[in-house]
Input
Amino acid sequence: MGIKVRPAKPGEGRDVAQLLAVAALPRPGLANTIDNNELMMAPGNPVECYLVAYEDLKMVGAVGASPPWNWLTELGKHGLAREEQRRIGMIIAKIVSVVVEPDHRRQGVGRKLLLHTIAFYRQHHYKWMYGQFSDDSLIEFYKELGFTVSDPDQPLNVPVGIRTSMLGGSGERWFSMLL
Ligand SMILES: CC(C)(COP(=O)(O)OP(=O)(O)OC[C@H]1O[C@@H](n2cnc3c(N)ncnc32)[C@H](O)[C@@H]1OP(=O)(O)O)[C@@H](O)C(=O)NCCC(=O)NCCS
Output
């Protein structure tokens, strides 16, 4: 079985949305972002990363990651300057979602998608990556990839880019990694 991982192309948003829906992970904006090719890939800009995994002609997995726009917007409301938000958006990436089609789980597809995402952000000189999840059965998945996994509700110290900041306890677990 050959699994190929590559960047998502415009037109593939619907298939990605379907994979996410099956896993009960609705991400309303993500399909549009992929289809409208809104990805900011120009050099010197924050970068987003949307990858898909194919087995032959079938999409069997997808991952989306981006600078933590929502969090940066929040910080902006508390006075963080736009230029500073942009600078942080060029060194911190958040995994928005990773999903594998149920019949293809436990075959290394999710691992492959995340390893490509990590490599992508390393190539772009990002310093730190994080995300959150609620299903405890995934603790091993993230640990096995080298992420540190927090206890539920524990805040997360942001170790780079910003002098003193923490992401609050969300009832979920954080996973994070220095790149
Ligand atoms: C999370 C998810 C993407 C993992 O994808 P996957 O392709 O099944 O994972 P992999 O086969 O690459 O797993 C790599 C390793 O992680 C660990 N792992 C993965 N899923 C696991 C599970 N359900 N329970 C325990 N360990 C698990 C194992 O160590 C595994 O290696 P092994 O199979 O050799 O033991 C997949 O389970 C999924 O789509 N879940 C629903 C969506 C979701 O919850 N996404 C995460 C939140 S955004």
